[in-house]
């Protein structure tokens, strides 16, 4: 196998791409060593269609078609979002456009470019991922048997009945043994095989709601709710838990559930995360398991239990160990349905990448280790992990220990088009405002999530278009890998930034990773890659993560080894490390590192948190605070409101000014 490191250092990217029919965008051929993610050529004419109202099966058919067709030359582009964010990016491609009223007509239009269909097994969700891998290898689409007949597609492979729904390990073991040897060794993909879609027009009855901001479990107790009114009809009783406030991350938390019928008989009794919960957990996709054996949800997340009492039951009650900012409601209509997850599959099919979805713990975590061990250092894993936050921490750490960086991309649309749009990335950074070092509290505000290329494509564009952006100095994290997978997106943010907007690298440079977990002999490969991309994109500040402590109660600060590697191989002159409590300030190997401060709540609560944070400051020297901003719940208007609430002694500054002032303060600090 050709070494990834050899490809990057010796300019062998063209060799790797040639075998896949992959090309570099105009202007990129001069520096192939800087490219990590593949491009499929510059789009000149695009067939455009709206797929936002199609179900997951039809979207899956079309995105895998898009992958095969666009591998040769980008020609298909879809709008996935009712908010039309995909259409906002369309003019920036520079391509001529033909719009089509019925997206499914494009299957017949391009039937001659595909060999047929790989049939996934609707009874085995993970067969969607195996089918996607096969589709890339066989120039096929992924479809159900019914879709293949409707579109007159030959069957290339039929996965029905081949795998056991309950044996995920065996499914992905078969794929690793039989398909991975034929896949590209330079990209891995992690995509959920299915998505959960809310059913329209469901009528909920609210049972209870916590209206106070409670984040310390002080309202924890057993609560009993009467579900008898829901016995009149439907196919069961669906009990939903949500976040009553949704803006500060402390939603419903459940420690136990017991359901009783009219004769006192126990219908269900379980604790979250145990085998006893599984038969009743109808939809847990928007929740996580906590350290106390609880299930919780925050923000827009939720979870639903389903109970099916016998016919004729007259009374039904549930006792729940419940706390924090809960909202509980009930219905008799199935509130969600499950369908294939279609996103990002154009890119994986075009790249001929292996697609998997392995929880990063237990036996599946061990298989994930084996997958990572089969690729070279700095091979990207594009997509995400199951099990929400726990899956993120465990998955990213496993990848890091094998020298693999994560590119969160599971909701990145039209990647086969955006990767090929050429753009000038070395634009001028807005000039640094002049400021004088004084004995003040210098606050720099950083909007997170920029490592997620789908965030950069979708949510960030929404925030960026807010007319209140630019009123306050703000650091916006973005992925330097947009230089490969979405150069025009990055160029748009650079060209439309105000003097108050500063783009900085998201965690932790060239892909989301924990540098402290990287092997000794691989870390330099990551920081060298990061350095090339930062120089290419004109960024010199990094927002970074590192492994969590063994107790899981915090983060490990950058050490000398990690800092030396960044200093040796990158232009980085300052690091904001995810820390949350704001009490980290260090300079390992001479690299300034400051931990962020992340108080909960919106503007007023955030202001109050800052005031508590600086209570011990006596005003005799400057104080520096790196404030974190929640990208999913805050807007530029919220940031402007916070700035308006902060009077003396605070001064809000951009990140580059912040680190300049820190350096000056350090220089003048008495020895």
Question: What does this protein look like?
Answer:
Residues 1-33 have low confidence and may be disordered. Strand 29 and strand 30 (593-597) form a beta hairpin. By secondary structure, the chain is α/β, with parallel strands linked by helices. The N and C termini lie far apart (54 Å). The strands form seven sheets. Strands 24, 25, 26, 27, 28, 29, 30, 31 and 32 form a nine-stranded mixed sheet that branches. Helix content is 28%, strand content 22%. The protein is globular and about 75 Å long.
Summarize it.
The chain is an alpha/beta fold and 671 residues long.
Keywords, please?
22% strand; six-stranded antiparallel beta sheet; 671 residues; alpha/beta; nine-stranded mixed beta sheet
Secondary-structure map:
Blueprint: H1 4-10, H2 13-18, E1 45-50, H3 56-72, E2 76-79, H4 85-89, E3 96-100, H5 105-109, E4 117-119, H6 127-138, E5 141-143, H7 145-150, E6 155-158, H8 168-178, E7 188-190, E8 194-198, E9 205-209, E10 221-226, E11 237-243, E12 253-261, E13 266-270, E14 281-283, E15 288-289, E16 295-296, E17 302-307, E18 316-323, E19 326-331, E20 336-340, H9 345-351, E21 354-356, H10 362-373, E22 380-383, H11 388-401, E23 405-408, H12 415-418, E24 441-447, H13 453-457, H14 459-464, E25 474-478, H15 482-485, H16 487-496, E26 501-505, H17 523-537, E27 541-544, H18 560-569, E28 574-577, E29 585-586, E30 593-597, H19 603-613, E31 623-629, H20 636-645, E32 650-652, H21 655-668
Helix pairs in contact: 3-9, 6-9, 8-10, 17-18, 19-20
């Amino acid at each position: 196998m050709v070494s990834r490191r050899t490809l990057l250092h010796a300019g062998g990217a063209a060799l790797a791409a040639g075998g896949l029919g992959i090309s570099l965008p105009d202007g990129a051929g001069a520096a192939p060593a800087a490219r990590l993610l593949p491009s499929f050529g510059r789009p000149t004419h695009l067939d455009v269609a709206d797929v936002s109202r199609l179900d997951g099966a039809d979207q899956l058919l079309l995105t895998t078609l898009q992958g095969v067709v666009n591998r040769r030359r980008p020609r298909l582009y879809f709008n996935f979002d009712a908010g039309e964010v995909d259409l906002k990016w369309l003019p920036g491609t520079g391509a001529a456009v033909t719009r089509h009223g019925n997206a499914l007509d494009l299957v017949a239009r391009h039937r001659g470019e595909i060999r047929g269909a790989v049939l996934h097994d609707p009874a085995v969700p993970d067969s969607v991922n195996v089918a996607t891998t096969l589709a890339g290898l066989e120039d096929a689409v992924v479809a159900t048997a019914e879709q293949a007949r409707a579109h007159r597609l030959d069957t290339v492979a039929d996965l029905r009945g081949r795998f056991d729904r309950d044996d995920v390990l065996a499914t992905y073991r078969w794929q690793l043994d039989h398909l991975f040897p034929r896949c590209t060794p330079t990209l891995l993909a992690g995509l959920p095989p299915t998505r959960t879609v809310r059913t329209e027009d469901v009528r909920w009855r609210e049972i209870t709601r916590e209206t106070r901001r409670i984040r310390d479990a002080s309202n924890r107790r057993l609560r009993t709710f009467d579900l008898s009114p829901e016995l009149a009809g439907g196919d069961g009783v669906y009990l939903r838990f949500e976040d009553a406030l949704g803006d500060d991350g402390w939603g419903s938390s459940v420690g136990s559930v017991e359901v009783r019928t009219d004769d006192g008989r126990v219908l269900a009794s379980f604790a979250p995360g145990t085998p006893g919960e599984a038969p009743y957990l109808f939809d847990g996709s928007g929740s996580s398991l906590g350290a106390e054996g609880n299930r919780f949800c925050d923000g827009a997340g939720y979870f639903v239990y389903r109970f099916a009492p016998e016919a004729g039951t007259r009374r039904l009650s549930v006792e729940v160990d419940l706390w924090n900012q809960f909202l509980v409601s009930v219905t008799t209509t199935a509130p969600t349905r499950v369908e294939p997850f279609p996103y990002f599959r154009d890119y994986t099919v075009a790249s001929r990448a292996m697609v998997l979805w392995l929880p990063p713990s237990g036996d599946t975590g061990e298989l994930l280790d084996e997958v990572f061990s089969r690729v070279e250092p700095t091979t990207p894993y594009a997509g995400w992990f199951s099990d929400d936050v726990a899956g993120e921490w465990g998955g990213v750490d496993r990848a890091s220990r094998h020298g693999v960086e994560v590119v969160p991309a599971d909701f990145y649309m039209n990647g086969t088009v955006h990767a090929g749009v050429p753009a000038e990335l070395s634009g001028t950074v807005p000039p640094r405002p002049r400021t004088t070092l004084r004995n003040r509290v210098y606050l720099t505000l950083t909007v997170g999530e920029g490592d997620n290329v789908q965030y950069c494509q979708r949510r960030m564009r929404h925030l960026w278009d807010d007319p209140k952006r630019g009123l306050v100095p703000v650091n916006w994290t973005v992925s330097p890998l947009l230089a490969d997978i979405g150069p025009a997106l990055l160029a748009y943010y650079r060209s439309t930034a105000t003097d108050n907007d500063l783009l900085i690298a998201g965690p932790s440079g060239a892909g989301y990773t924990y540098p402290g977990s990287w092997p000794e002999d691989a870390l330099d490969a990551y920081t060298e890659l990061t350095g090339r991309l930062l120089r290419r994109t004109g960024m010199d500040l990094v927002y970074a993560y590192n492994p969590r402590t063994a107790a899981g109660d915090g983060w490990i600060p950058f050490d000398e080894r990690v800092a030396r590697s960044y200093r040796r191989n990158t232009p980085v002159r300052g690091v904001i490390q995810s820390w949350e409590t704001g009490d980290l300030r260090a300079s390992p190997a001479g690299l300034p590192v400051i931990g962020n401060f992340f108080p909960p709540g919106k503007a007023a609560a955030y202001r109050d948190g800052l005031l508590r944070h600086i209570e011990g400051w006596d005003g005799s020297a400057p104080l520096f605070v790196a404030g974190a901003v929640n990208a999913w719940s805050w807007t530029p208007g919220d940031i402007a409101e916070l700035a308006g609430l902060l009077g003396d002694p605070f001064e809000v500054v951009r990140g580059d000014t912040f680190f300049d002032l820190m350096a000056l303060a350090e220089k003048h600090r008495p020895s």
